[in-house]
Amino acid sequence: MTTTLVWFRRDLRLHDNPALSAAAAAGAVLPVYIHAPDEESPWAPGGASRWWLHHSLAALQDQLARHRLPLLIATGTTTLETLRRLIRETGADAVAWNRLYDPAIIERDQQIKRILREEGIGAESHKGALLFEPWEIRKGDGGHYRTFTPFWRSLRRQASPDRPLPVPDMDAPAARPASTALDDLRLLPAIRWDRGFEPVWSPGEAGAWQRLTTFLEARLRGYDDRRDWPSVPGTSGLSPHLHFGEISPRQIWTATRDSPGGDGDDAESFLSEVAWREFGHHLLFHFPGMPDDPIDTRFRAFPWDPDGDTALAAWQAGQTGIPIVDAGMRELWQTGWMHNRLRMVVGSLLTKNLRVPWQRGEAWFWDTLVDADLANNSMGWQWIQGCGADAAPYFRVFNPVRQGERFDPDGAYVRQWVPELETLPAKHIHAPWQAPADVLRDARVTLGVTYPHPIVDLKASRQAALDAYQTIRNADA
């Protein structure tokens, strides 16, 4: 009987797993997870991602056990050498996996496929992470898209994605090498900063499906109106489940279309957000330097503030004195997640008002987000900075006070995450420095004592950012 090693990576599910289905159709299946974070350098998983990975692998172990299959966890000097060792120990004939699109991983996987095939081992990769491959959606002239709207139109013109695959019937192999214990990977933090994650998240395929079901039943209708409001549960919260492959975009697409209202405007709006994730991978594939280098190369010469370390530290700690920004940064630290509207607001403050390089914000998100995804994180930060392929114009500097007043008008979100201001009237909660002294006194708010003064003047720093941008525009003229 043929035995295939199914190499799990960020596809930690049994449903709609093309590599697993192909292996099961060929013979016995041995599921394998190989821990090799150094091979993803310089973008090895951050602290929040490691927390999620630990719990997701535990959930996958439990799922496979119900099918009388082990999850073999392995480590080694390199993934290639580990696969070779497992092939020798099991007599496996083939290795199957689902493709990833991070530049370092593409290079590694191509080498592994070539060498294994040269050694007479079947090596096949499959499409399991995206609706369409980055090379499948092209412009009429054969080039790749640089802006989202025509990309989305082109994606919608494609044939609908295939229906998701069921869990296959799987036979276990005769040989089962010893497995490394999950705890030995030391993915969980030694100092338990992650306690706020557990009430919010349920990593694993079951948790992903429950979150999708809840969203479709209770939140899809009205999604387009509520998705920008951070104080209400208006979004799906599926991004970390998607990143770790606990649910596939094809499952989300099909379940959305099959749901009541699946052909309406709210569903279309939601699916366009799924397509933004696709677009991020499309860009990363065609611009592999995107995590570090601005696509608009003029920004290499942008005059950042050379004294930005203090501002960066205040931003990271949610101590900028600008309530909507501090609320977002504190939610991020406590839960590993932040509403997308606030990602734009806090990013704009960091890169434009404070003129701290976008790569430093990107690195902080990478370490603290449970949904930290190389394609979408780097695309988002380049969009915020105005230096990406489909970037917001640089002259658009988000005013965090106006954003708070528009999307958190009663201050509920700020009160939740910045309790120092919870008794401040809604009229003043987004700009406490403008509140009259008696209002601050009645609310027991003392700026500079119980809550910081703003670390930056929003109007003056906006103009300074625009002046700095003008220097690189002039240089390009």
From TrEMBL:
Q: Where does FAD bind?
A: 223, 235-239, 270, 371-373
Provide the GO biological process annotations.
Answer: photoreactive repair; response to light stimulus
Q: Does this UniProt record's set of keywords contain DNA damage?
A: no
The record ties this protein, via InterPro entries, to:
Crypto/Photolyase_FAD-like_sf, Crypto/Photolyase_N_sf, Cryptochr/Photolyase_FAD-bd, Cryptochrome/DNA_photolyase_1, DNA_photolyase_1_CS_C, DNA_photolyase_N, Rossmann-like_a/b/a_fold
Enzyme Commission (EC) number: 4.1.99.3
**A GO molecular function held by the record:** deoxyribodipyrimidine photo-lyase activity
Keywords, A to Z, come to: Chromophore, FAD, Flavoprotein, Lyase
Required co-factors: (6R)-5,10-methylene-5,6,7,8-tetrahydrofolate; FAD
Biological role: Involved in repair of UV radiation-induced DNA damage. Catalyzes the light-dependent monomerization (300-600 nm) of cyclobutyl pyrimidine dimers (in cis-syn configuration), which are formed between adjacent bases on the same DNA strand upon exposure to ultraviolet radiation.
The similarity annotation says: Belongs to the DNA photolyase family. Belongs to the DNA photolyase class-1 family.
Its protein name is: Deoxyribodipyrimidine photo-lyase
Origin organism is Aquisalimonas asiatica
